[in-house]
Amino acid sequence: MKTAAALTLALLLSVFLVVTTVTAQQNVPQIPFDSNTDFLKFPDDIHLGEAAGVAVNSKGHVFVFSRGSTTGPAFGAAAAQVLEFDQNGKYVREVGKGLYAWSYAHTVRVDKNDNLWAIDKGSDMVVRFNPQGRVNMVFGRKKEASDEAEPWTRVTPPRPAVDGQFRQPTDVTWDPQGNIFISDGYINARVAKYDANGDWVKSFGEPGTAPGQLNTPHSIASDKDGNIYVADRGNRRIQVFSNDGALKKVITIDVPAPADAKPWFGNQPSEAAGKAQSGAPWAICITPPNASGAQYLYSSDAFPGRIYKLKLDGTVVGMFGKSGRQPKQFGWIHEMACPSENELYVAEILNWRVQKLTLKPGR
């Protein structure tokens, strides 16, 4: 029979073996890059609000989920609008105009079949559109207007999560088998898994700071092997799970911020400033395999406003950008799309724009 001390040691060893954390990295190179802030061509009567989401389909069409076209009172107005542009940036259409789920835009994604997925934080709903722009799958349900039509309040401790329902969901991804993973989100702090038919499977994660626990899972992505990467923003780390929910790795981006770094507004945040901490992941994306089969993980933070390029093992191989309002500067990147290793689209909620970025690593 094992003693208590032996059991404790075995537990610590098991945690150590499961969880790998990348340590501080001091000498990360800057990646040269170009920016196009005018790639998207808008009709005269359409303007972006906060650009919360951006995605690219197989044709190179760009979809922007904007907190624009608001309706309702000045505060608490419904703010969500999906706009489509072709591969040259020409405006094509608005997808889902006046949709019942539209409340407060969060992110937008495109799957391997060019279905468009919109994640609405305000209505607690995730909606899938087919390539023609028609709704063909719905997840979650917003409160009925006949009841107390108010968002779920936050309480401590949080209310138990309910299978099939969300409280401020944030993002979606898929594994090679088509299983669906929804990061849920600001309140439930978990990942919800459905199968390819949309049937509930399970959830993993819960509020907390321990390995496997989550604090504002704000973005989610998957690699070619079906591993699930969760931007655990409130805990300032990216946690990597198997597609069955087993924790495999913890990635921490520990690149010091420049001494003269400036935030987009206000004073320089302290080390305890939560979501404004250097390296805290707001948005992540994973590139398709390159010619040698390698994929890269991109992650952005709010301060000092950088984008980091990482190998999938968590090694930071480069970084670029900073906070600001000029081209090649960023105001809270809320979502990124990376259709190739050296081409990124970034949606900024503070600067109300999408930038097309072209990396020049060999320059």
Entry summary:
This protein is mainly beta. 4% of the residues lie in helices and 36% in strands.
Report how far apart the termini are.
Answer: 63 Å
- The CATH topology turns out to be Neuraminidase
CATH superfamily: TolB, C-terminal domain
Low-confidence stretches: 1-18
What kind of assembly state do the chains in view correspond to? single chain
For the record, the count of structural domains works out to 1
Largest sheet: 4 strands, antiparallel
SSE run: HEEEEEEEEEEEEEEEEEEEEEEEE
CATH class: Mainly Beta
Using only CA atoms, what is the Rg? 20 Å
| Helix amount | under 10%
**What is the 3D shape?**
globular
DSSP helix count? 1
Can you name the CATH architecture?
6 Propeller
Question: In words, what does this structure look like?
Answer:
It is a single chain. The chain is mostly beta strands and 363 residues long. It has a single domain, classed as 6 Propeller (Neuraminidase), CATH 2.120.10.30. Helices cover 4% and strands 36% of the residues. The chain has one helix spanning 4-18; strands spanning 33-36, 50-56, 62-67, 81-85, 91-95, 105-110, 116-120, 125-129, 135-139, 169-174, 180-184, 190-194, 200-204, 217-222, 228-232, 237-241, 247-251, 283-286, 296-300, 307-311, 316-320, 333-340, 343-348, 353-359. A 4-stranded antiparallel sheet has the order 1-24-23-22, with no helix packed on it. Strand 23 and strand 24 form a beta hairpin. The termini are far apart. Residues 1-18 have low confidence and may be disordered.
